[in-house]
């Protein structure tokens, strides 16, 4: 079973509010459509210029929440819109994709720990569907509603569903060192802490550092790679940076 994340920077223009990167999204869904229909695949996509822009505008992050229903609806609504675009393109390519909205199923406790039930996702897979989740808001005890990142969702799904492989498709070919070269393998965060910075665009979920931390906690090995290597990953390869 494979858990694949399409980064928000891949499917949207993160520097222009609520703007798709149509060409990149087409390339991504073409690659997903090439996966054997019998294979179990879960897709997660990031918020990009839809979720991050609206969350930043309302001052909401993974730790700072809102009790304003209007703000919650604006952020969640933007993510549902993006999810609809992704689903539509997948369905156009005969991918049996269906939505799973985290705001309706997940929550955080007062310590910030995320609970994401996966029974419905497991059943979807067994019935031949491709569940498509996305960065979203979740109810958060004591905070109202906070952001849940696609990376957090990937980590929870991969663990609960016992994924064989995990892939994060980004706009960079992997985790880069100080000389802009791809780091082939990461086994400890301390090995790369000095070169990991935040996202250059508006991002309320922690950028590459958060991705690496989340993947290091998994039992399954994971790959971080660029869009040009998505076909290779889905064919069973390990392009970009392997995190284990």
Question: Would you write up a description of this structure?
Answer:
Helix 7 (150-160) packs parallel to helix 8. The chain starts with a strand and ends with a strand. It has helices at residues 8-11, 22-33, 48-57, 69-92, 102-105, 119-126, 150-160, 207-216, 230-234; strands at 2-6, 41-45, 97-99, 107-108, 114-115, 130-134, 136-140, 144-148, 165-170, 185-186, 222-226, 241-243. The strands form two sheets. An eight-stranded mixed β-sheet has the order 3-6-2-1-9-11-12-10, sandwiched between helices. The chain has a four-stranded mixed β-sheet with strand order 5-4-7-8. It is α/β, with parallel strands linked by helices and 244 residues long.
């Amino acid at each position: 079973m494979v858990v694949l994340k399409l980064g928000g920077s891949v499917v949207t223009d993160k520097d222009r509010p609520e703007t798709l990167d149509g060409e990149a999204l087409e390339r991504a869904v073409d690659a997903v459509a090439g996966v054997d229909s019998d294979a179990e695949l879960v897709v997660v996509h990031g918020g990009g210029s839809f979720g991050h822009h609206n969350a930043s505008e309302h001052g909401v992050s993974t730790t700072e929440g809102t009790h304003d229903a209007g703000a919650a609806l604006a952020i969640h609504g933007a993510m549902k819109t993006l999810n609809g675009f992704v689903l539509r393109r997948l369905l156009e390519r005969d991918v049996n994709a269906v939505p799973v909205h985290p705001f309706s199923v997940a929550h955080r406790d007062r310590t910030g720990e995320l609970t994401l039930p996966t029974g419905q996702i497991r059943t979807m897979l067994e019935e031949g569907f491709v569940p498509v989740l996305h960065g979203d808001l979740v109810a958060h005890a004591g905070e109202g509603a906070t952001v849940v990142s696609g990376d957090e969702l990937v980590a929870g799904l991969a663990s609960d569903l016992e994924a064989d492989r995990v892939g994060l498709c980004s706009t960079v070919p992997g985790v880069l060192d100080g000389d802009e070269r791809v780091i082939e393998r990461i086994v400890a965060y301390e090995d790369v802490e000095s070169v990991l910075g935040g996202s250059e665009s508006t991002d309320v979920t922690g950028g590459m550092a958060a991705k690496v931390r989340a993947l290091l906690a998994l039992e399954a090995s994971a790959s971080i790679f660029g869009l040009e290597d998505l076909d290779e990953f889905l064919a069973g390869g390990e392009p970009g940076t392997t995190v284990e």
